[in-house]
Sequence to fold (138 residues):
Amino acid sequence: MPVQKIMIGYDGSESSERALELAIDLAKQCDAEIHLVFVVNEPTGMMNPIPDEVYQSLVNIGERTLLNAIQQVKKQFLKYITHLETGNSGEKLLELADEIKPDLIIIGAIKHSSSEKLLGTVSSHFLKSRKHPILLVP
Fold:
């Protein structure tokens, strides 16, 4: 199966940086398009809807984070598309994957709680769905 479209969940963390490096290397080898995805997680415990200034601040962080990834991808002259989503990271990434149908999803695997000792919550969403090819990067 040729890899023509790679989706990466990117949040600027160390594991997502390593995932991005791997995605770039693979995209160069396969001449694949990279879909860079940042999900703005709405703060929990706040009034719904969240205040506009708080939401805009979170969006600004997402845009800056994506700009970092874009710079790395542009250096390699690769095709890319960015996606800035809002909501639960795992759910939004799955929804987007269903929509764009990537050949491979690359996600950094990080610890978030004791119930996910080996995998992060986003990684767990994908493994439970069993719909998409996924590569977890420690």
Notes: Strands lie at 5-9, 33-40, 80-86, 104-108, 134-137.
